[in-house]
């Protein structure tokens, strides 16, 4: 899947069971102190920065909304050189032993895409079984920006102490991008086991595997709806010369992360459909707590350019609404289980200056903006 270091490069080169919440009370909100918020971000308040250097991404909530798992190459906490998995408190306070960030992965190989199980354990993908070194990263092929798709990725389970991981899903080919159904029974993940990048579902009770997608193209980054009845994911559907190029790159362990759209289907893969077709790349989708909308990252408004923002859209493809307006990279959104907060990754900073750092941010979610939100401005 997308590496943390890729987050910034994308901005340069391509160019859970819960209910809707009420907005936080406006009388308790001080706009002057919200230095990480930008005009137009009417659904976000009290934005807090949780990491402070390097590249950090894919932060996802625990089932009790107290913790986040994320991947990071930030040298201050990860001298290994490529992405590793960490745990932190969602409010930014130290963990019980006083440390701010706890390494959960082995510190070997490259990791990606951590996600909590209801019992507090954590899934993630890693290449560590094939060696301690970081696998090589290729950024371009055939004159195009590409992501590496390592066939040494397998999916592991650990706990929040960083105990020795246990192999959950392995075998030949790429196995990564795993997330979990709200009831904790199913894992949806991306695999190249059939020769294409398809979505699969793993039953944690029976060990059964079910292939969910069957069309040519990259199917990945899937998440379940709050009631577990649906999945949403990003996918490319290349045709003609683009299809031939897709096959050539995939044979080299590469994929071109452009021209992707959002798809939804029933949780067993039936009734798949494209939500909307827009220019550029639509990715990192996640269900709104109402189960009727999707928040996602897109550069369609810049016609495939460098700027990525968060957007909301209804499942029927209507009601497109821009959520972030930082003028930089914003992606990887996930609502807390109670629907009151949004975590995301961004290149933003309080100074409003260009930055190569991608950090994790948490904001209060404002479902119904008030005048204090609609009129928000920066000094």
Structure summary:
The protein is mostly beta strands and 379 residues long.
Secondary structure elements and pairings:
Elements: H1 4-13, E1 44-49, E2 56-61, E3 67-72, E4 84-89, E5 102-103, E6 111-116, E7 122-126, E8 140-141, E9 144-145, E10 147-148, E11 154-158, E12 166-169, E13 175-180, E14 186-191, E15 198-203, E16 209-211, E17 219-224, E18 230-235, H2 240-251, E19 254-255, E20 261-266, E21 273-276, E22 282-287, E23 293-298, E24 309-314, E25 321-322, E26 330-335, E27 341-346, E28 359-365, H3 371-374
Antiparallel strand pairs: 1-28, 2-3, 3-4, 4-5, 6-7, 7-11, 8-9, 10-19, 11-12, 13-14, 14-15, 15-16, 17-18, 18-20, 20-21, 22-23, 23-24, 24-25, 26-27, 27-28
How would you describe what is shown here?
The protein has 379 residues and is mainly beta. 7% of the residues lie in helices and 36% in strands. The N and C termini lie far apart (39 Å). The chain has a 4-stranded antiparallel β-sheet with strand order 1-28-27-26, with no helix packed on it. A 4-stranded antiparallel β-sheet has the order 2-3-4-5. It is built from 3 helices and 28 strands. It is globular, with a radius of gyration of 19 Å.
List keywords for this structure.
single chain, 379 residues, mainly beta, four-stranded antiparallel sheet, 3 helices, 36% strand, globular
The helicity comes to: under 10%
The main β sheet shows up as:
4 strands, antiparallel
Q: What best-fitting shape do the alpha-carbon axes yield?
A: globular
Q: How many alpha or pi helices?
A: 3
Strand order of the largest sheet: 1-28-27-26
How many distinct beta strands? 28
Extract low-pLDDT stretches: 7-20
Strand content: 35-45%
N- to C-terminal separation? Answer: 39 Å
Q: Would you tell me the overall average pLDDT?
A: 93
Classify the secondary structure makeup into a structural class: mainly beta
Output the radius of gyration.
19 Å
């Amino acid at each position: 899947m997308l590496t943390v270091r890729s987050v910034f490069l994308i901005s340069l080169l391509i160019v859970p069971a819960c209910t809707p919440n009420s907005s936080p009370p406006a009388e308790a909100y001080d706009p002057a102190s919200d230095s990480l918020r930008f005009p137009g971000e009417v659904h976000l308040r009290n934005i807090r920065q949780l990491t402070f250097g390097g590249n950090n991404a894919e932060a996802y909530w625990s089932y009790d909304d107290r913790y986040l798992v994320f991947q990071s190459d930030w040298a201050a906490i990860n001298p290994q050189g490529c992405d590793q998995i960490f745990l932190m408190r969602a409010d930014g306070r130290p963990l019980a032993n006083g440390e701010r960030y706890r390494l959960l992965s082995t510190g070997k190989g490259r990791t990606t895409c951590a996600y909590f199980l209801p019992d507090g354990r954590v899934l993630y993908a890693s290449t560590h079984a094939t060696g301690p070194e970081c696998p090589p990263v290729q950024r371009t092929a055939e004159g195009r920006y590409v992501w590496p798709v390592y066939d040494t990725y397998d999916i592991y389970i650990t706990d929040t102490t960083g105990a020795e991981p246990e192999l959950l899903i392995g075998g030949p080919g790429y196995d990564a991008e795993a997330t979990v159904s709200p009831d904790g029974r199913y894992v949806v993940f991306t695999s190249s086991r059939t020769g294409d990048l398809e979505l699969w579902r793993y039953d944690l009770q029976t060990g059964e595997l079910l292939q969910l997608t069957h069309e040519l193209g990259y199917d990945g980054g899937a998440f379940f709806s709050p009631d577990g009845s649906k999945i949403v994911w990003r996918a490319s559907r290349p045709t003609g010369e683009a299809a031939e190029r897709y096959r050539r790159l995939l044979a080299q362990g590469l994929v071109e992360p452009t021209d992707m759209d959002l798809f939804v289907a029933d949780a067993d893969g039936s009734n798949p459909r494209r939500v909307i077709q827009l220019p550029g790349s639509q990715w990192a989708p996640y269900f709104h707590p109402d189960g009727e909308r999707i928040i996602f990252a897109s550069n369609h408004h810049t016609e495939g350019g460098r700027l990525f923002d968060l957007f909301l859209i209804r499942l029927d493809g209507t009601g497109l609404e821009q959520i972030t307006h930082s003028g930089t990279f914003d992606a990887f959104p996930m609502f807390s289980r109670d629907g009151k907060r949004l975590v995301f990754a961004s290149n933003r900073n309080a100074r409003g200056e260009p930055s190569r750092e991608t950090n994790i941010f948490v904001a209060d979610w404002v479902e119904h903006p008030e005048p204090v939100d609609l009129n928000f401005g920066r000094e």
